[in-house]
Amino acid sequence: MLDDLKIKRLILGTALHGEGSAEAFEALYRKCAPLLLGIARRMVGRRELAEEIVHDSFIRIWRSAGQFDAASVQPLAWMVTIVRNRAIDVLESHDVSRVDALEVDAPGEGIDALFDWAPDLETGLDTERRSRLLRDCLAGLHAAERQSLVLAYAHGMSHSDLAAHLQKPLGTVKGWIRRGLANLRECVERRTEAAR
Amino acid sequence: MKLANHPRLDALCGEYLLGTLRGPARRRFQRALGEEPQVALRLRHWERTSLPKHSERIAIQPSRGAWTRLDRELGLARYRPRWFRRVGLWRAWAVAATLALLAAIAVPILLPGLRTAELVEIARLESADKREVLHAQLSSDRRTLRLRPIRPVIAGPTQSYELWLLPAGGGAPVSLAVLGALDARFAISPLQAEELRPGAKLAVSVEPAGGSPTGAPTGPVILVGEIAS
Lengths: 196, 229
Hints:
The complex is a heterodimer of chains A (196) and B (229).
Chain A: H1 4-15, H2 21-44, H3 47-64, H4 75-93, H5 111-114, E1 115-116, H6 125-139, H7 143-155, H8 159-166, H9 170-195
Helix pairs in contact in A: 1-2, 2-3, 2-4, 3-4, 6-9, 7-9, 8-9
Chain B: H1 9-18, H2 23-35, H3 37-50, E1 53-54, H4 66-74, H5 82-85, H6 87-110, E2 119-126, E3 133-139, E4 144-149, E5 159-166, E6 174-179, E7 184-187, H7 190-195, E8 201-208, E9 221-226
Antiparallel strand pairs in B: 2-3, 3-4, 4-7, 5-6, 5-8, 8-9
Helix pairs in contact in B: 1-3, 2-3
């Protein structure tokens, strides 16, 4: 399992840009590149494009490791954000319909196959509760809302990709996303409040 | 209007994290993230509470050469400790050693009449759990050491294996070879051959690429065995 504490140390070692930083950065790459590549490949659908995204992202990670805010950001999430942003840039600049080439998970493959709900070792109980709570809230959404959110997040689908993939009018799909997000937000807030 | 006061700020954060905020709207949001701390704070809140972690089941190995390309493009050699940069020297040494070895092998073949030296097993090195075994063989002319693992074992890109001689009468370990793989054959000096006698031990440790930076074993010893005869 990817250990956030270890990843954090490696990012901080990379950020020094001194002797030994190359080793920290290499260890970070060996540890995290496979998952990041998996995420990118799902988003853009094509392996060679995904490899480019991960390459560009690691250049960015090397250069901006000094700005990584260890106190308030989860280290792996920080890297995932960089990769996802780069992937969306690529999706936006590639003027091709990607829906045909898309490999979508088998219908049975739901939120438990794509995501990991285990808590971080570092932050313990708090994340365990948060993780379970988020899973319950996602599972509690209407099926169409949940499906749209997961397809957009895991497969990098835009509103129009979703409309084409699900064969529904654009307005309907936008509504599912909007309501799905609002319901998820409301559920997370309500249950976080209740847990206090 | 500032995005921080936008009535749909939470919704914008959500669509941004989801990836469905695209085009000019996405760029405007990213600009606001740099300019309006409240927007960044709100985004961070949603990032922490409502983004699931990706499962490692979806991971795939990057293609071979991907790391080398990154390494070269960023010029990472400058950020390695000085001993690591000496790997260049080790490489030159390895080339020289290979050439010497090729010559040692080629000469007997090219000059008939000179017989290839026979190999005699002198030690059997084992891991603590006895599952890994390495046979160490010495040529009958005592000039070449041959290592034969029972299965191929190759060091990772940031590691080397180092073979040590632990002299019979005690004393500091002597490095015999730095190896990228345990299957190896290399020349040893007459002085080293002299020390390869019953009671002495051979050991393999894991070291940073290029071998121990200190001249003594620094990493874990994975295989050890006593010289028999």
